[in-house]
Amino acid sequence: MLTRRRSRQMDPLEARLAAEAERLREQAGSLPPGPARDEMLRKARQAETGSQMSEWLRSPGLQPPD
Length: 66
Prior knowledge:
Helix 1 (13-29) runs antiparallel to helix 2 (35-58). The chain is mainly alpha-helical. The model has no long low-confidence stretch (mean pLDDT 88). The protein is flat and about 45 Å long. It has helices at residues 13-29, 35-58.
């Protein structure tokens, strides 16, 4: 039977998603306007939204976002 390799993430999911959003925004800034840039900005927004949702789900009171 094969064993599965498992690695433990050192940073919380929210921090990794926020860093990914920042990286994508920086890359998009160096691209000319067009579909590739729009796609990177869309992915950055998705990462930010995921980070915010994860924070909200971990909150003790589960208050809806503002």
